[in-house]
User: Fold this.
Amino acid sequence: MRLVIDTDPGVDDALAIMMAHAFPGCRIEALTVVGGNVGLDMTLRNAGFLKDTLAADFAIYPGCGRGLCWQPENAAFVHGEDGFGDVLEGQPEAAPEQEHAASALVRLAQENPGELTLVTIGPLTNVALALRLEPRLPELYQRLVVMGGAVTGRGNVSNISAEFNIYTDPEAAHIVFSEWPFFELADWEATMVHQFTFAALDEWLTSGSPSAQLYARICGQVRKFVAESEPQDPKMRAADALAMAMTLEPASVLESAERHVAVGLAPGMTRGMTVVDWNKRTGRPANARILQRFDQARFEALIRQGLS
Ligand code: BDR
Ligand code: CA
Assistant:
């Protein structure tokens, strides 16, 4: 399995990338980086820290620093001002390439038709631009797996129906969802069903591996955010890790539904909402396989492996 990961690292992005790096038979070809959780300068810096930590040979391509048509709130209040918990100093050794991420997304697919899986764990700005550059992109990638959306409207941003990656660039998500004939979707609501305990995480972190050491440092701000927002029963959630689990081990998907998913673009309450034709009333063909339940033990095993 050869992956191109479009990402805005991000604490859960980091975990997802560690999982892919550690998975037997998986090779990360490239990170195409986008602004989202925090600005592009910081998401690129974090991609570099990941490459250093993993001693990996993937290329890092700098992409878009803001959405196609607007730039709403970022997620620094969850991930820290630098996106990685505000604990790392200096700059990584790994440097980004010159080529723009959208161009790299096209070139890599053209050079390896049918070979690569594209996993998107950030706003879809780079991918939408790549689609405009190369409309055959869906034929050139083997699979597209998207982390995004809240499929019954229980989102995680100020516009309560929407999820962060879609809300950050709704126009880009609209382009991808309406022009990519079929993709796999791991949404925020599935993420909330697949939380894991701090105790389990602490045990996995005892491996002391470079990945575990980095993750232990950068996840502090997320833990604090969760503990403050849900003091009764704080648990760890990692949306991008769930999308990566579905990518790496599709056989561990226990339930899914194939439906048409569209993106709300109008200003107001439904901007950035993922609108799912649950009752198949529009006659539009399904464009997404929506994850509903993943084998929790396998999800946790994949995270543990990523941190080992
Ligand atoms: C998504 O938003 C970001 O904050 C996370 O990294 C994840 O990709 C979850 O809504
Ligand atoms: Ca992300």
User: Anything to note?
Assistant: The chain has one domain: 2-306. Residues 78 and 225 are 6 Å apart (CA to CA). The longest strand covers residues 27-33. Strands lie at 2-7, 27-33, 59-62, 116-120, 141-147, 183-186, 253-259, 261-263, 274-276, 288-294.
